Amino acid sequence: MPFEYKKVLMLGATSGIGWALAAKMVENGVNVIAVGRRQEKLDEFAKQYGSGKATVDTAAFDITNLKEIPNFAKEIFTKHPELDCVFLNSGVQRHLDWTKPENVDLDTMEQEMLTNY
C-alpha cells in the first residue's frame, strides 16, 4: 500500500523508532518535520538526511511541557499549512524504583503517564 502523505510531522524523531521512521520517509521522498527535545540530535538528523529526496525541517519541543502544546501546534501549522500527517511517537521513561514504593516520585510518574498515554 503506498504512503499517500507528502509532509509529515514526526514527534519523537531524535532517537529510536521515530528517527528510523523519519529517515525512511525522507528516503522515500516524504517531506519531514522532525520534532524532539534535543536540538543536537535534530541538527544531526537534518545534516544526515537534509539533502535527500525530500525536505527536512526540525523543531525542538519537549512534549512533557503539556501547557505549551497548543502554542507549539499553532506555530507548526502556521509555518507548515500543507502538513497532512502527524506521527505521535514521543515517549519518556523515567527511572522509578518500585522495590521501594515509598520512594517513587508520584509527580514523575504522573508526567510519564500523561506523556506516554
Folded structure, characterized:
The protein has 117 residues and is an alpha/beta fold. It has one domain (7-91): Rossmann fold (3-Layer(aba) Sandwich), CATH 3.40.50. It is built from four helices and four strands, in the order βαβαβαβα. It has a four-stranded parallel sheet, with helices on one face.
Task: Outline the fold blueprint.
Blueprint lengths: L6 E5 L4 H12 L3 E6 L2 H11 L6 E5 L8 H11 L5 E4 L17 H11 L1
Parallel strand pairs: 1-2, 1-4, 2-3
Pfam families: adh_short
Family: Belongs to the short-chain dehydrogenases/reductases (SDR) family.
GO molecular function, one term: oxidoreductase activity
Residue-averaged pLDDT: 91
Separation of the first and last Cα atoms: 28 Å
Could you state the order of secondary-structure elements as H and E?
Answer: EHEHEHEH
Oligomeric description of these chains:
single chain
Shape label? elongated
Q: What is the gyration radius calculated from CA atoms?
A: 16 Å
Any guess at the CATH architecture? Answer: 3-Layer(aba) Sandwich
Approximately how much beta-strand content do the residues carry? 15-25%
Strand order of the largest sheet: 3-2-1-4
What is the helix tally? 4
- Please tally the β strands and state the result: 4
Total count of domains: 1
Low-pLDDT sequence parts: none
CATH H-level superfamily: NAD(P)-binding Rossmann-like Domain
GO molecular function, one term: oxidoreductase activity
Family: Belongs to the short-chain dehydrogenases/reductases (SDR) family.
Pfam family, one: adh_short
Keywords: Oxidoreductase
